[in-house]
Automatic annotation (TrEMBL):
Gene name for this UniProt entry: proS
Reactions this protein catalyses: tRNA(Pro) + L-proline + ATP = L-prolyl-tRNA(Pro) + AMP + diphosphate
Keywords from the UniProt entry: Aminoacyl-tRNA synthetase, ATP-binding, Coiled coil, Cytoplasm, Ligase, Nucleotide-binding, Protein biosynthesis
Note on domains (UniProt): Consists of three domains: the N-terminal catalytic domain, the editing domain and the C-terminal anticodon-binding domain.
Record's protein name: Proline--tRNA ligase
All copies of domain Aminoacyl-transfer RNA synthetases class-II family profile, residue ranges: 38-470
Amino acid sequence: MRFSKMYAKTLKETPKDAEVISHQLMLRSGMIKKLASGVYTYLPLGYKALKKVEKITREEMDRAGSQELFMPVLQPAELWKETGRWDAMGPEMMRLKDRHDRDFILGPTHEEVITDIIRNDISSYKSLPLSLYQIQTKFRDERRPRFGLMRGREFLMKDAYSFHANDESLDEEFENMKAAYTRVFERCGLKFRSVEADSGAIGGSGSQEFHVLAESGEDEIIYCNTCGYAANLEKAESVVKEEIVETKEELAEVELKDTPNVAKIDDVCEYFGIPASKTVKAITYMDTLSLKVYMVLQRGDYEINEVKLKNLVDETDLVMLSDADLVAHNLIKGYMGPYNVELGDIILVADESVTKMINHTAGGNKVDTHYVNVNYGRDYTAHIVGDVRSVRAGEGCPRCNEGELESARGIEAGHVFKLGKKYSESMGATYLDENGKTNIMTMGCYGIGVSRTMAAAIEQNNDENGIIWPMSIAPYLVDVIPANIKDADQLGLAEKLYAELNDKNIDTVIDDRKERPGFKFKDADLIGFPIKLIVGRGAKDGLVEVKIRKTNEAFEVKAEEVISFIEELIAKG
């Protein structure tokens, strides 16, 4: 490709609405162009990189024994009503009506469609197990599209689905897919970690996420520094290593204390001279679908994990109560507590830690008041008790009980699920076993965000000058730059090497623009060509400079040896 003919409009300035580095660099390097909020056009450079991620993904899925198909984007509402997700998915689902007033969606995922296909085509155990996948555009009406390709309303995804006669077969495929995903991300040249995860709206009994490690990652990953335990913050567990102090503290009588202008935990601690671990905070939530209200109790020095909370109370869309809603329920902001409170239809939820506290302090349910010496069991009980706490780095590992938990930031790029019978049962996907008995199939689901993986690669690989593409997914590997195109020796040698690299099927660009060398070098670094082949004054002596983008190393190489030199660099990755 000749740079003078290439559609790559680079920008010097960073667009104001681009928050993360991948969004900034993809816009500046001319890889994507915004059409609407969360909707982007892939320009030639970006599309070429995207296709390379897609190619690696397809090759590894084929290697894993999955077969490719292509399902419709447009899906009828009836399928989603069968599984109950028509209502459960909420406003993120892109809904529309046809001219006959029939309800459809633009597919955010395809569990219902694939299950409908299989239930109509597969009837015998002899056809199982079966694994199918597709690479296709998905649609989700994000409440707040942001971060470019990281959280868009339209994105490219690989989704695979497997069908089995029993759980043992599903377990085997789950491990097969985990291995395939490991190969995908390794071949993409990325540093990543697989972690235990929450299944979310997809459902199922078990899941693991694959996170590309990057400081800008939205997700916090918790992992043990001794064993292999790792989980995202939504799923992570820990052993709290608190100092064990022998105490003869007895349960004291509850007292109501005046606490003027003391509404926050820090203020309560200062006012009473106690640690936050002796306080209990109450936070209220409402589910927007069921309209149930929950008062959640948490130890003052811990944070509520809202995903764990949703799973514990079996709700999907919890939001904190507004000030107006608090007033409507006769609750006092900053002074709520579990003792001597009129709950009405409010459901009281307590974190496990609260049940173990002795003589804790909590809101007095009146302005400027708190109760002291409140105790779970004696003075109040909760309707629901469970783990709704976010773990923290430094706590103990729940698996080996020896290591200490550490944290890192990650970008979720892949997710594998054991769906079990969530969809097959509700949609009647059955098979006849060897005895002629009807059984329900068990299912797995496996997704890779292809476009997100491309963006995550940039988040992980960049510097102040631009993108540093891994070799395997770079749109072009080599940028041949004649320093002075008016110099016949330089231009002639550059053209010769450009032709030879193309003959070797090495993706190569020649920068034949009538621009200064410095301008070309800046564009090359911004776009992220892994190798710059600079043909300058040494051309008359048959010498060129090879510069590696990742390490900034520069080598003077004889022209007749440069092709083999570059091939060796590519082979090393």
